[in-house]
Amino acid sequence: MDAAVRQVLGPERFDIVQKAKLLVVGAGGIGCELLKNLVIGGFKNIEVVDLDTIDVSNLNRQFLFRRAHVDRSKSEVATEAVKQFRPNVNITAHHGNVKDPKFGIEFVSQFDVVVNALDNAEARRHVNRLCLATEKPLLEAGSTGHLGQVTVIKKGKTECYECQAKPTQKVYPYCTIRSTPEKPVHCLTWAKNLFDLCFGPEDESNLLADLAAEMRQFQSSETVDGEMVGKKIFSALFMEDIKKQAGLEELWSDKRPPPTPLVYEDVVKGDMTSKAPDGAINGQVLQTQKVPTVAADAAGFVKAVAAMYAPDRRSMIGSSSFSKDDPLAMDFVHCAANLRMENYRIGRLSRWDAQSIAGAIIPAVASTNAVVAGLEVVQLMHVLAEAAKPPTDGKSRCKTVWVRYPEPSRKKILQPSSLLPPNKNCFVCGSQTARITVKSFADWKIAALAKSCIQGALGAARPAIYSNGSCIFDPEYPEASEEAEEEGLHPEWSLTEWGLSSGSLLQIEDEGQGFSCNLVVSEDAEMDEEAHPTGFIINAGVDQEQEAKRKAEAAAAEEPPAKKQAIDTVDLD
Questions:
Q1: Phi, psi for residue 264 in degrees, rounded to 5
Q2: Cα–Cα distance between 74 and 61 in angstroms, integer?
Q3: Nearest-5° angle of CA 200, CA 217, CA 260?
Q4: Which residues contact 145 (CB under 8 A, 6 or more apart)?
Q5: Residues 6 or more apart from 396 whose CB is under 8 A from it?
Q6: Is 399 in contact with 419 (CB distance < 8 Å)?
Q7: Distance from the CA of 352 to the CA of which of 235, 284, 431, 503 falls in 20 to 30 A?
Q8: pLDDT tens-digit readout, 540-557
């Protein structure tokens, strides 16, 4: 095989490929295709990191996996599979989270290039910062249905992953989730918060935190009867709480009637037969695609709560969090959301649809993943060749390439564009200062600022916060304790108690990511909490000029050839 690859690549490029040491992050849809391509393409030194295990739903598009591999580590099985293509390849699997400290700066520094095959923005941001800190080239890629993208990130030469604003998850106003849901997604958001409230750690930011005491009292006994707890929670939420909501007359009108309470004993007497969705051919659909009856949802809700108290799950109560990939958590959320939809006269969902919405799932397309993985290898070849021999004209052959189907541009599925330079206003790779505004400094604890704003919104992993050179939050002490107090740290103190005022300048240091930035915190007593349900506004410094340029290029790509501006053609060499 080596002789054939050498003949295709040429001796010089083949030698570069053989010596390159790569880190691949992700062994899922794109990752499987990527690892296969890399091994067949002659790369011999590869390490791959992935947190996930194989689920039966992966088998229709992640072709390195078989049914016998279900529940095994993706990285380990993918490594075993590609070794069959080239037994002498030096490939190492790591089953773990790339955000773990062991995969930090020192680990990343040993590689020539990092190649991403990730499916979430949080991990992408983390790897982006590690590569900037270590000055390692990063190949970034992703797919959404039939659409895909591949780009190259080099510190100081191109945009980093965070130079442009990314779409954020929709956040709904508190009153909509708590009292006046109008869509299934509102009820699913409510149900996910309910799961975390009932079975997760205490969290003051939970949208249903006002129900915490009531939910906890159902779990106070050492020998809790799970089925009885389920029935009590049902009565509390779908009957008593709904009665209270219905009594708030100012919320309701002829166009929006009050919700209807459900009585468990009456509901479970109904039909338990799930119904196929409209349009199903002779009712031939999967059971998960059928919409359960209200009776089935009520029984399923109680059954899910009881299962949480079974011996194999009881120890996880107090530390669980919702995951669409946890069948029991999904059963709970699906049934709870459907019951709330029944309360508010909203059309109920099948488990299939509920899981898609709750997990923000966009169906993956195997062919798109294959195209994206192939383009990543092409760009990787350019990166390695230019590292070994910089182009004499100073022009890089690396491109951002978009995969556009089923509506390609000018009948071309692949649409390239030149790499953009770094955004000088990027708070990660540029000089811009991030800014956060909250309504009241007195209401925000420093630990909450670190968790919700700096970790959640800015993507830091383990941020330390400094004010005037003094540390006011250390990730080693996220909660109040004697040890924290001995270090002069008080995570329970508010911003006011720390002596901060509107416009204060803080410094953020994240040793795990090798990332630091300045942060200005401001106070705005007039902030509209309905418009900003998270309780804060963040400005991370998006350059509007470059954003306009990006949009202009995208628009130009849609023009017919006669009107098209100068955009590069695809070069796969």
A1: -55, -50
A2: 13
A3: 90
A4: 362, 363, 364, 365, 368
A5: 152, 157, 382, 386, 419
A6: yes
A7: 235
A8: 655 445 555 544 554 454
Q: Model-level pTM greater than 0.90?
A: no
Report pLDDT digits (tens) over 137-163: 999 999 988 899 999 999 999 999 998
Q: How many CA atoms lie within 13 A of 498 on its CB side?
A: 30
Helix residue ranges, H only, 445-527: 446-448, 482-486
Taking alpha carbons only, the member of 139, 96, 532 closest to residue 372 is: 139
Helix orientation angle between 11-19 and 2-9, rounded to the nearest 10 degrees: 120
Share of the chain above pLDDT 70, in %: 89
Edge-to-edge strands, sheet with 434-438? 470-473, 464-467, 504-510, 515-523, 434-438, 536-539
Q: Are 452 and 535 in contact (CB under 8 A)?
A: yes
Residue pair 462/477 in contact by the 8 Å Cβ criterion: no
- Looking up tokens 């993956």 gives 364
Q: At 244, is the secondary structure helix, strand, or coil?
A: helix
CB contact at 8 A, 155 and 132 = yes
- Rg of the Cα atoms in the chain: 26
Find, among 230, 238, 232, the residue nearest to 331 by Cα. Answer: 230
- Segment 313-337 shows an average pLDDT of 90
**Residue of 32, 131, 175, 398 with catalytic role:** 175
In the block, residue with structure tokens 């009565």: 235
Q: b/e for 316-354, b at 16 or more Cβ within 10 A?
A: eeeebebebebebbbbbbbbbbbbbbbbbebebbbbbbb
Torsion of CA 434, 437, 442, 448, to 10 degrees: -60
Q: Among residues 15, 23, 29, which one has the least CA distance to residue 48?
A: 23
Between 226-235 and 294-308, two packed helices, what is the crossing angle to 10 degrees? 130
Q: Which amino acid is at 129?
A: R
* E-only strand ranges, 290-440: 399-403, 414-418, 434-438
- Residue closest to 138 by CA, chosen among 117, 120, 116, 166: 116
Question: For the segment 262-304, what is each residue's pLDDT rounded down to a tens digit?
Answer: 999 999 988 777 666 655 555 567 788 889 999 999 999 999 9
Residue 436 CA to residue 537 CA, distance in Å, equals 6
Residue 390 has φ and ψ, to the nearest 5°, of: -55, 140
Mean pLDDT comparison of 175-184, 186-195, 319-328, highest-scoring range? 186-195
Residue 285 token pair: 């659909």
- State both tokens at 454: 């700096």
Higher pLDDT, 236 or 361: 236
Please, which residues bridge with residue 148 across strands? 143, 403
Residue 144 bridge partners (DSSP): 147
175 is catalytic: yes
Distance of CA 238 to the CA centre of its chain: 31
C-alpha 377/C-alpha 28 separation (Å) is 16
Cα–Cα distance between 397 and 394 in angstroms, integer? 10
